[in-house]
Specification:
heterotrimer, A alpha+beta (247), B alpha/beta (580), C mainly alpha (126), A: 247 residues, alpha+beta, Fumarate Reductase Iron-sulfur Protein, Chain B, domain 2, 2 domains, five-stranded mixed beta sheet, 7 strands, 13% strand, B: 580 residues, Flavocytochrome C3, Chain A, domain 1, Methane Monooxygenase Hydroxylase, Chain G, domain 1, seven-stranded mixed beta sheet, 36% helix, oxidoreductase (chain B), membrane (chain B), Succ_DH/fumarate_Rdtase_cat_sf (chain B), nucleotide-binding (chain B)
Chain lengths: 247, 580, 126
């Protein structure tokens, strides 16, 4: 094994660059090093001006999403040796405005998230004195997969629909809405219907499936969206056939 | 620029979000803001794995949870705080359930609990082994439903504004634009978490640089019990990734290189095939980490490129149990260590995990500075004393986050005075200082990373699992030198947009303050208690040191240490007994 | 604050195999529509009497019509296969409290397809 590998890192300095330019750095190629370790090496020893986000480096905080050799990845969970002998091209996540180097603006997602009401909605909240809302392990399993989203934005980066139409609510937000819709304790499905079944909601999704392929946590947002399409379609038909009965 | 809020919360993790919601619920008329250097769901609460302790089972009692906590703390906690904590923890965890937290369940639909280190009963609520992740996301998503909570995401606080002994807000930089703003407030709540990054090998995320501790310290508040740094016995070598105590609670064994369950040699009980509470692998973290050091000295550990390790054996638990209750551990071992714990031994070694000490607060979360509150790992109430029990920290964030939020809301409602001109002037000074640094630092010649690495090595060598007068004095001296070099640190990045080098420099300054306060407290505590083990004073000394260390910053920048008696209500100091 | 927004390339769908497959699947709906139109033309021809039906058959036998229909069939197959592949992700079926494994749902779809085809074949060929 060679003892070094080349990282070609996209640099974008607002005010100086009109578009990102690739800059090459040589970093040690070590057994356990993630791409993130390579970037930290650059930052610490070669070039302090490189900007990127990272925090937990154990694949749970969702900060360090980047495009590695064309694929959206968590850079803390992507290893240098898997790309040897290199070079490895590291770019910011696609489909988001680039603020600086590898840092993208995820404000759009942060604005959309509350619109799908990703919190437990109850008609009446029971007093705490009455204890927990009962939920069997099977009921927990119904939504558990969709509760694993770490908001890392890899799915938005992989989604060509989002690339073409920035109004699309998007995979993670819809999966989180489904996480609550499918929670036996939740009563907010009606409130989420309007946003989810709007043209910018589930019907924008054409089931490319890349979001689920990119998801590092196995959430399967594409599946969540298709499931909701079935629900929404069933409801629409029921509404046509039995206009008076509400659900 | 200047804006005003009634309550400013620094930090958007478990404690910060809980505090913000508590403010909004206590007094909806108050304008509350959360200022965080990362998006709230990135906060380090997300990494907590094993669970959250609160009495739930019929055979358990608040007194037993309190006693476990008190004895686990080596009697250095305040027992009134512990009693309040254990009494309120169940309600807080239940509230999280009502907000949607996906707690693991029993077949009948009720909350499930698991065993944990140092706990005599099963009382640790869990969401598989991603408890912190689910807890944080539930809080974050619930906070989204409070549209009145204003968020400053990716804003870095550089200073707490103080006038006449009272906090009046903060100065912060917006990372994306470099905009510097004075955010004034009637009260400030610090919830920035711990400071594991002052050590080289830690489970802590990159963001845990002790900012809040240093901010409060510089503002004039006292720090408490800073010498008590928790080493978690089981971290993955190289990455330092935490392998939760729940692995041992579910039945995992710790083996030395001979395949021997070595904890039996350290007064932690006798091995049994199934886990026994408060015994062996379910002993407290301080004792387990200390046992590791002795195993190294006896040559009974395995050497790796990343230091000596022992092994965690989960193979006998089987794939089914591991996938149901420890799926994240399996994922982490597979991704980061290339090991499948179902079939292979997991190499582990002690790793800096948690700061028992922090900003001195009373039982309501109030610090020694008027209008300044603190909660979570950044604070020291203290319920953790000399050693925190696993799964007490998440409920601590909730219980004391709520308490601080409520107290701050009451204070802010009562004292809505105009912000003094002196405070605004301070804000302008800080804005000028920060803008000046970018230009001034261009002249520097020391690399930030070099100073940081040397500081971390100094801390590990000087104030590790075992320390003594000489190692601490040496560390004190080295930190002083690093402090001088810090003045000559270079910032090559002159951009105002997302300048992470400027932030790294500011963080390093905070970490040096924290490191110095750790050494100052450790040097003066001439006894061994919990996580503070002095080889030159190997015994606990209740006559001299059944007291909290308080360190205050002096005008010359050094820390002055005084002592505050421990509050004892019902459990007089005794021997810590595990496994017998 | 100036930001950089990466333009969407005109041929973005050639960047990845999955994108290409997705565009082809989207395109398949055109051929689904064509098949429906073709069927309606057939029904119309039959209802107009034997001469009209013969003209329809003659036209259908021309090389270009055969080519169109072969292509249409390929796209229809793609449409069906991907549609069936998606089924278990859109449908969560529970039997006796347990989730039916995805493979069984896919298998059920293919089985239903086979049965329907058999019925149609029986109707046409008897």
């Amino acid at each position: 094994m060679a003892d070094e590998i080349t990282l070609e890192v996209a640099r974008f300095r607002p005010g100086e660059d009109t578009e990102p330019v690739l800059q090459s750095y040589q970093v040690p190629l070590r057994e356990q090093w993630a791409v993130l370790d390579g970037l930290s090496y650059i930052k610490d020893h070669l070039d302090g001006t490189l900007s990127f986000r990272w925090s937990c480096r154990m694949g749970i905080c969702g900060s360090c999403g980047m495009t590695v050799n064309g694929d959206p990845q968590l850079s803390c969970a992507t290893f240098l040796t898997d790309y040897a002998p290199g070079p490895i091209r590291i770019e910011p996540l696609h489909n988001f405005p680039v603020i600086r180097d590898l840092v993208v603006d995820i404000g759009d997602f942060m604005d959309k998230l509350p619109t799908v009401k990703p919190w437990l909605v109850r008609d009446v909240h029971s007093p705490l004195e009455e204890g927990e809302y009962l939920q069997t392990p099977e009921e927990l399993e119904d939504y558990q997969q969709y509760s694993m989203c770490i908001n890392c934005m890899l799915c938005y980066s992989a989604c060509p629909v989002y690339a073409l139409d920035q109004d699309f609510v998007g995979p993670a937000a819809i999966a989180l809405a489904q996480r609550y819709n499918l929670d036996s304790r939740d009563e907010g499905a009606d409130e989420r219907l309007a946003v989810l079944s709007s043209p910018e909601g589930i019907w924008s999704c054409t089931f490319v499936g890349e979001c689920s392929a990119a998801c590092p946590k196995g959430v399967d947002p594409a599946g969540a969206i298709q499931r909701y399409k079935l629900t929404a379609a069933t409801q629409a038909i029921k509404g046509l056939l039995m206009p008076r009965s509400r659900r | 620029m200047t804006t005003f809020h009634d309550v400013v919360v620094i930090g958007g993790g478990g404690a910060g979000l809980r505090a913000a919601i508590a403010v909004a619920e206590t007094n909806p008329a108050l304008r509350v803001a959360v200022v965080s250097k990362v998006y709230p769901m990135r906060s380090h609460t997300v990494s907590a794995e094993g669970g959250a302790a609160a009495v739930a089972a019929d055979d358990d009692s608040l007194d037993e949870h309190a006693y476990d906590t008190v004895s686990g703390s080596d009697w250095l906690c305040d027992q009134d705080a512990v009693e309040a904590f254990v009494a309120e923890a169940p309600r807080e965890l239940l509230r999280l359930e009502h907000w949607g937290c996906p707690w693991s369940r029993q077949p009948d639909g009720r909350i499930a609990v698991r065993a944990f280190g140092g706990m005599k009963k099963k009382r640790t609520w869990f969401a598989a082994d991603r408890t912190g992740f689910h807890l944080l996301h539930t809080l974050f998503q619930t906070a989204l439903s409070y549209s009145d909570i204003v968020r400053y995401d990716e804003w870095y606080v550089t200073k707490i504004l103080v006038d006449d002994g009272r906090a009046y807000g903060v100065v912060a930089i917006e990372l994306a634009t470099g905009r510097i703003e004075t955010i004034t407030a009637s009260t400030v709540i610090v919830c920035t978490g711990g400071c594991g990054r002052v050590y080289p090998f830690t489970t802590n995320a990159n963001i845990k640089t002790g900012d809040g501790m240093a901010l409060a310290y510089r503002a004039g508040a006292a720090l408490k019990d800073m010498e008590f740094v928790q080493y978690h016995p089981t971290g993955l070598p190289f990455t330092g990734i935490l392998i939760t105590e729940a692995t041992r609670a579910e039945g995992g064994w710790l083996l030395n290189k001979d395949g021997y369950r070595y904890l039996q040699d350290y007064d932690l009980g006798t091995p049994s095939p199934t886990p026994v509470l408060r015994s062996m692998e379910l002993g407290p973290r301080d004792r387990l980490s200390q046992a590791f050091v002795h195993e190294v000295e006896k040559g009974r550990t395995t050497d790796t490129p990343y230091g000596p390790v022992v092994h965690l054996d989960l193979r006998h638990l089987g794939a089914k149990l591991i996938d149901a209750k420890l799926p994240f551990v399996r994922e982490l071992c597979t991704n980061y260590q290339n090991i499948d714990p179902v079939k292979e031994l997991v190499p582990v070694r002690p790793v800096v995990h948690y700061m028992m000490g922090g900003i001195h607060t009373d039982i309501r979360g109030a610090t020694s500075l008027e209008g300044l509150y603190a909660a979570g790992e950044v604070a020291c109430v203290s319920i953790n004393g000399a050693n925190r029990l696993g799964s007490n920290s998440l409920p601590e964030c909730l219980v004391f986050g709520t308490r601080a939020g409520r107290a701050a809301a009451v204070f802010a409602g009562r004292y809505r005075t105009a912000v003094p001109e002196a405070v605004l002037a301070q804000g302008r000074d800080e804005e000028r200082r920060l803008s000046g640094e970018l230009a001034r630092r261009a002249e520097g010649h020391e690399r930030i990373a070099d100073i940081r690495t040397e500081m971390q090595t100094t801390m590990e060598n000087g104030a590790g699992i075992y320390r003594d007068g000489d190692s601490l004095a040496k560390a004190e001296h080295e930190l002083a030198e690093l402090r001088l070099r810090y003045q000559h640190a270079a910032i090559d990045d002159h951009s105002t947009n997302f300048n992470t080098e400027l932030i790294a420099w500011l963080e390093l300054g905070f970490m040096l303050d924290v490191a110095e306060s750790i050494i100052a407290c450790a040097l003066r505590r001439e006894e061994s208690r919990g996580a503070h083990q002095r080889t030159d004073f190997p015994a606990r000394d209740d006559d001299r040191f059944l007291a909290h260390s308080l360190v205050r910053r002096q005008p010359d920048g050094t820390g002055r240490v005084t002592y505050l008696p421990v509050t004892i209500t019902r459990w007089p100091p005794g021997e810590r007994v595990y496994g017998r | 604050m100036t930001v950089y927004e990466r333009p969407v390339h005109l041929l973005w769908w050639l960047e990845r195999r999955s994108y290409l497959l997705f565009v082809l699947r989207e395109l398949s709906s055109v051929f689904v529509a064509w098949t429906v139109v073709y069927l309606l033309l057939l029904v119309n021809a039959v209802s107009d009497g034997p001469a009209s039906y013969q003209r329809f058959l003659d036209r259908s036998g021309e090389w270009w019509m055969v080519a169109i229909n072969v292509i249409a069939m390929l796209f229809l197959l793609l449409h069906v296969v991907t549609w069936f592949g998606l089924a278990p992700r859109a449908m969560v079926v529970k039997a006796r409290g347990r989730r039916v494994p995805p493979r069984q749902i896919v298998a059920a779809h293919y089985f239903a397809w086979l049965v329907l085809s058999a019925i149609v074949a029986w109707l046409v060929l008897r």
